[in-house]
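re: ur question from earlier - yeah i can do the single chain one, its not a big deal. heres the input i used so u can compare w yours
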Amino acid sequence: MGTLVTSTGIPHFDMPKFSKLPDAEKWEVLELLEVMRAAAGARRPRAYLAEVAARNMHRRGWSLKQLERKWYKYRKKNDWRELINHAKAPEREVASVWVTEAVIEWWRACCDRHKRSFMSAWLELVGKYRAGEMIGDVDWKKFWPSSEMAWREMGKAPPADMPLPPGWSYHNLMRHKPRAIETAVARHGRHAARKFSERVRTTRVDLPVGARYEFDDMWHNHITITKGYRKTIRPLELSVIDASSDYKPVYGIKQRREDVDGKRKNLTQADMLLTVAHVGCHVGYHKDGCVFVVEGGAASIPPWLEIVLMELSGNRIRVSRSGVDRIVPYGKWGYDRKGNPDHKAHIEGAHNLIQNRLDMLPSYMGSNSRVDKPEDFDALCNTVDKMLAAREMLPEELSDRLKFPVLDFETFHDVVDVVYGQIFDTRDHELEGWEKRMIRQWRALPGEAWKGEAEFAGLPEEQQKLLAPLIQQEGNSRVVRMSRREAWEAGQADLVRLPDYAAAMICAPLAEERKCPPAEIVFIANGVRSFYRVAACTGPDGARVELKEGRKYRWLVNPFDPRVVFVSETDGKYVGKCERAEQVDRGDDAAVKARIAETRKAFEEALAPQKRRSRPAALRQADDMAHNTGLLRAGAAEEARRLTEGAAISEERRRAIEDVSLDDLSGAKHEAADADDISLDELAGAGAPDVDETGTTASWDDLL
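and the output i got, formated as tokens:
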């Protein structure tokens, strides 16, 4: 009698081994366990096994002889592992004794040296082995006694037909080739190998608006033209994206023209300074802190600017640089400067989205013109260049009527603005981390426009009660994703901004030194004139600042926000900012009158100091006029009598003379008794003019 068969299953300490079996073998082992237990409880175990074998005669390994063999082994050892079919589940692969660790390492190093083909690496291994070199820890002399050449006498050099050791075939050695990440770093470098490494997964579910800004530049994949320039222009863009809302609060497009030396002008550090100043002083950042993610190229922040941002924001603005991977693998001469796109993945994805939306525009040149450029692009450029040259020879009325196969830069800029507006306002997106950015919409009847909850809350209570049953009907309410713009605007309340003088500090190298004009200063950008009112300069404390005429100041206009010009002393002391004089439509009478009233008010304010200074002189003039009027009144009758004495005049003329008054003779406007009532403004000619009884306007010349 053998060992008693227990009813226990697979022990828990054997579960790791059981889990490594193929699924089919797992089920077979469990089924055999049930058969063994049933046979142990049967009166005639062999008869039961014969019955099981008859039912499973179609299955390999379930014959009566094999079941009996497994039964006796299992009963003797009471071990479930005796039921495993090792032909279907081998415990380990049989490796060749000649494929040692040293051989594998030599083979992988050989693969690293060959940049295109593993087959060429294997041919090198075979050639060096048959040339007598040591491959790892195996050479032909060591293998000779075990080879088919053992019956021959071993010479000093391997024969030309020296066989390879078992396991050294190309197919078998490819099982030991380097990993994909090792091959990538050996053939292309660390930058290319990153795509085979583990990824860091992040989410923006709880990332507030304004907490992370990513800066980057982009080359648009089109060419454009502009009036007055004889070459095609490729637009360049410098933009900032808020990682939380995926919204671009700032983006600017620049023309890539040539300078006087014939060099193309790309995006520069000055463009980045203006962008950073606009983000910090106008857009704002989150009150709890913000990270400016930049690269090491054009869209970079120099160390001195990082210090300025940290100090002005109270260490709430930090700068994160992607940088360049400077670790060079062994055997490499150096490295190529490449940034880490994963560090600013949000704006890289936004670049791809806008490029996809603009691919229908003419003059598309491909995402990489070296490999995917349209085959007619060169011919298109040649045609456009000839047309631009011919345009210079035509009169203006004819050149303006030419139809180019590419867009002009201004039209391209407008199209980009429209497409960005569509992207920012759409709800049809699948952005990550939008679980908390959902809004509920409603409508009263099918087919109506969807409305938001705020619009429902603004209705009268009686109307809300009437609409509630309609909204509760199926199809009249839904939950949708917020658009990028809505998500951005929802977080505006938590944004803070740097003071105005921060813009002057950040962009100090870009300020223009000019003399202060009397009333307005003019700046021209992209052919557009902007007028700024120097008399309306506001200091950092909000008080009015008087600029000295003719004195030199540093003036800074940010093209991202040209509504103000920042003014500083020549030594960098911040003075204030001047507002732009907005232009009004000639056809809008109300706007024109309002602007006139505003300028008149500024005019009176400008004259106020002079009026105060001239008040004493005006009072003296009023006293002198009153004195002269009294003298004229006293001698008026005597003078009239002298003029008419001894003259033969008619009674009618005498009566006319009697009607002549002192005022008529002296030209004075007021009686002596009223001379003290003459105001300073009337004497100085300020304010609204007075009108006499006849409706004519009384001027200062009348008073004299």
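Residues 42 and 204 are 65 Å apart (CA to CA). not sure if urs matches, ping me
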